[in-house]
Amino acid sequence: MYPMWAFLYRNENRTRMDALSRKQHWEAVYQHKVLEQASWYQATPDTALFFLQFYQLPGTARIIDIGGGDSLLADHLLDLGYGHVSVLDISEKALERAQKRLGQRAGRVTWIAQDVVDFKPVEPYDFWHDRAAFHFLKEAEDIRHYVEAAAFGVRKGGILLVGAFSTDGPNRCSGLDVVQYDEEHLVACFQPYFQPLQCVRKDHLTPSGTVQNFVFCCLTRV
Hints:
By secondary structure, the protein is of the alpha/beta class. The protein has a single domain (36-221), classed as Rossmann fold (3-Layer(aba) Sandwich), CATH 3.40.50.150. The protein has six helices and nine strands; from the N terminus they run H-H-E-H-E-H-E-E-H-E-E-E-H-E-E. It is globular.
C-alpha cells in the first residue's frame, strides 16, 4: 500500500512554488503582518497544550514546533518548564520577532530558520507539533520530504500532532492555496511510519472574526 502523498497532485502542468519563492513569500508576510492581527494568532495554543498534558510529556521532553514562526507556543512551553524547545520556520523575520519578544528567554530555545521540506533533524524529538504548516505543501515530493523528516526526527513511541484546515475549512490562507484534509487522509499521509491515536476538529476564531475549521491528528511513531 502506497502512502497518501504518492497519489496527490500528479498534474504535470501545475505551477510549483520553489523553495526560494516560498521563503520570499513568508518573509514578506512577517515583514508587514502584526502578530495579533494574523489569522493564525492564538493567545493560548490550547490544542497543543491539551495533547502535551494528555500524553503526560515530561519537562525533559524534546519538543519541536514546525512552522512556529512568532507564535506563542514557545512562550507557554517555557512557562511550563520544558527545557528542550525548538522552533522551525522558513522565515528568519518570524523567528527574529519571537526572539525579540522572549528577550533573555530566547536563549533557552533552539531556533531553526529552514524550509521544513529541507529539514534533516539532528536529534530525536518526543513531540513534533505542526499547526497550519503542513497544509501549505501541495506537491507530492514536498509532502514526502516532510513525512520522511518527521519519521526520522520523532523517536519511536514519540508523538506527532499535525493540524490542517479540514474539508470544512478555508482553501486559502495568507494568499496561498492550501490542501484541505479529513481525518482519514491526514492520517494516511503519515503511514506506515505513524499510527493514529486520535483526531479532533477545532474551530479557530481569527482576529477578524472569521471561523476556520481545523482537523488535528495525533499520531505515534512506530
